[in-house]
Amino acid sequence: MFTIAVTAPGSAAAETVVRTYLGEVASRWYGRPVTAAEVERALRDEPYDDLVGETGVFLTARDADEVVACAGARFVGGGAGGGAGGGDGTDGGGADAVGLVAEVTKVFTVPAHRGRGAGSALLRALEQTCRDRGAALLRLDTRAELAEACALYERLGYVRVEPFNDEPFSDRWYAKTLESVEP
Description:
Layout: E1 3-6, H1 12-30, H2 36-45, E2 56-63, E3 66-80, E4 97-109, H3 118-132, E5 135-142, H4 147-155, E6 159-160, E7 172-177
Parallel strand pairs: 4-5
Antiparallel strand pairs: 1-2, 2-3, 3-4, 5-7, 6-7
Helix pairs in contact: 1-2
């Protein structure tokens, strides 16, 4: 059983898991272990201090006292296109206006804890938090080489969409329309 909680970006718990995440992602990109300096550069290049308050949220999952996973969402306002299931009969990219858009970021499970449900539980909690905050659409960018993440997104109902940004390290884009839950 995992305990999921909103966690302050920059806190000790957040920094530890985010540094581990950045180290793994960069190591896969470079095909070698990364240096501490490269992790520091990644922290500067990919800040997450705005995942708090009105602009976002950052969650962590704990197993006992250990932080084993993280996920965040950045609220980017309303948008058009890039949705899951566009009104033009495609899997997104249509011109349908959507409500608040949340961009999912920093999704990571510590390798020793993969396959135990932490990532699924964390993403479901993030989806609910975003829904509660008024988001109608979640979207994210990733890379095919992050096969575990791609499989998780697809298992949870995210669909591939046309690129919605020009992120140089991404080659896959996903979106999921959040269904409103009636009281």
